[in-house]
Every structure is written in structure tokens, then in C-alpha cells.
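ARCHIVE CARD
Drawer: 12
Card no.: 0347
Subject: one protein chain, sequence and derived structure
Cross-reference: see card 0346
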Amino acid sequence: MSYVDSNVFIYPVIYDPASVPEAAKARSFLLEIARGKIEAYASTVTWDEVAWVVRKILGADVSKAQGRKFLDFPNLKILPVKRTTAMKAQDLMEEYGLKPRDALHAAIALENKITTIVSYDEDFDKIKVMKRIKP
């Protein structure tokens, strides 16, 4: 059971998987989720981040398409954000010096009893109760 950070969804879109190894690994990891071989979770915050980053880099039309792809992604469970989630994120931000969005991703995972996060972002390594793995 893993929480998948937005960069795993973004890399294969904004980078060429043939020339960027992280994009290729992310794409392979996502295929395993789609095939039902990995139990994976993300959140409404992940959708926002994917759509926003893709829009900034590739434009509104690509952003709309990628936002829809994310929401329709096979076997990916989408978790909501509640007030308690934001409060937990605030605590994580204060305790570990995380950026707000990273703290929110971590809080969503932890609130749902998920302690593994799949990400290229090393900031998650600071959180003692979580384990970060790369795709």
C-alpha cells in the first residue's frame, strides 16, 4: 500500500522517458498500478498539482487531458482532504520544515494509515514515520 506523489505522474508527461531514466521508471511504475499489481493511493491534491504543473509547462489543453487521465487512472484510489488533514499537515510542516504541499501529501497518507510514499522528492526522507521509495 503506497501513496504516490505527483512527480510520479508528472515526469512521464513533461520529460521524454527515452532520455530521462526517472520518467521511464515512473511510467513503468504507473503501468504496474494500472495492471492492479500495486495498491496505490493519491489525493485530490495530487490532481491539482499534476494539472497545475502540466498547465505551466505544456499549456491548458494538455493540462485538461492529463487531469482527466489522472482522475480516470485504473486501480488508483483517490483520497480526500479534510480539516484534520490540514491540521496534520501543519504539524508536519512545523516539525520537519516541509513545504506546505509536501506536508499535505504526507498528512493525507498518514491519516489513511499509509506509511510508504513513492516519490523522487527527498524532502519526504525527513519524516521519521514514513518510508520513501523511488518508482
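Annotation on reverse: The first strand starts at residue 2 and ends at 4. The mean pLDDT is 97.
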